[in-house]
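Margin note from the TA: students keep mixing up input and output lines. Inputs are the sequences; the output is the structure of the whole complex. Example:
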Amino acid sequence: MVSLYQEIERRAQQLKPRRCVVSWATDKALLKALIIAKDMGLITEPIFIGPDKLSGMHDFRKTTSMHDSAVMARECRFRQEADLIIQGHENRQSFIDCHLEGGILDKKAVYLGAFYDTKRKQTFFAIDPLIAVSPTLENRIKQVETVAPFLSHIFERKIYAAALAPIETINPKLPATVTAAVLAQMSVRNQFGKLFQITGPLDIDCALSKVAAQRKGVENERSGDFDLYILPDTNSSYFFATFLKYIGKVPTIGVLLSADHHLSLNSTPLTIPERVAEITLGMVAYNFLKINSHVKDIIL
Amino acid sequence: MISSLSQIQELAEATEPVVTAVIAPEDPEFMLAVKDAHKNRFIEPILIGRRSAIEKAASKVGYDLDTTPILEVVDRQAIANMALDMLASGEIEMVSKGQISTSYIYRAIIAKMKARKEEAVISVQTFWDIKGCDHLVLLTDPGTNISPNEREKKAILNNALQIMPLLGYTCPEVLELVSDSANLKDKQNPFQLEKTPVIKDNRGSYTLLEPRILKKVLLGGSGNSIDLNRLPHILLVPDLNTGNIVAKLDFFIKDIVRVSCSYTSMGPILLPSRADIAEGIMREFVFGVALVAESRRLADG
């Protein structure tokens, strides 16, 4: 069924089924996707929380409030009834707030967008369209520390990232160029591990086009073919994702990686295969945490 | 209303060549575009810069410079200043950047704007011709203002409103892009463009759309299917980080063709990137020529 995001699907094939709880489950398309995920052996029977029981919801818990739905989902996690919380058809911001004390995410939290390049038939990722609005350098380093091992886990190889900025040279007036340069140098020193290489700063044309990179003299072995794009801030990342999804028609999903909080956000609107892929990505992220729980710095 | 770059091409083809100062054309790829634009009678180039470097680049692409004037100037700032002097005086109608840092050109433009008692906010206008969209979409400013404040955003909008009527957009829809981020505090106080004075020469007004996330604009009321025709005519990007990255997504989205310029009251200033290849640079020449053609037509009444 899932023809997109083969790398994620391949990783999911080795997983033991987990249970998820769906908060404010009013979305029939999500229900169909969950049925498919269950048939694939990815999840067990989900817990559904919402105002109305729909056909196919075997374990249903009623509530008429979105807020209460989020609280009930969180309690399911605390009681270890469910491993992963999936956002249903509710407001994303209030959903996140309900699951986080005071709406504050830890500095490692990062929303990882996953895009499927239909031309290259390959998945690529980008951070961070939702969480760190104006990330500090420290903030960004911590996000990369979260993402790096997870992506190496998905691809099972070395990851090549482009740290984007408006220009490819370092200019203190443009903090994104400085952050990108620092991240790149840190990767040279293997501070994100030997399986994670960052090139930067790169402007978007040099990152996406080998020819453009050649013209500007910043050609890299992965120019035009990076696995991860580290965008300067939330605005640029959000619009990068939005324009790719809505104008470029690039299939787009994502997962929120955050210490102690396991949330799968609903990147509406999604096709059913995209929804299945998003649930799969959430499950891969959850299981990655389980196998790496002994490593303090690799917590999702 | 001009809705595609093919219509832009037709306009450019129908007009007389535009006398264009080309600043430091010292790269063969760029010179190839100058050669083609000249050969196809889009421009009458005047090349300004280091003669030896210009001749070397021309030689590499087989461009015979016998009938093309070269003004020998070595100092980079002096090159840019000379081009802007020529544009401001009406000696030429368009300027194009070659292999020179954009900062020299910006300094020259700002000096001219101040001398003309204009608001010295330069901005870049990037137009997208998107397959499936029945109009051109302008993104601004993806090139100069790092984090524009309210005054600068108004100036950026006014700059955009100078160029839109030339393309037949007399009352374009304007959307200031806001993101659907986890921290939406900024969205609670969206920039109040309503206070922006409509420019007074009666050639440009606009319809300001209520700040909404782009997804909702594109999905419309039904909430299910994307309609690219709902894209506003002008998208004001929040900052340089966003604008620069988004405007160049044509490298990824094959259904988009992009052209850019910085339009001033003196005329269009083309600022091709050093990464651009001849095809893209040529497209910008054609775009600038079409703007000049429409400007001439409007001036003639």
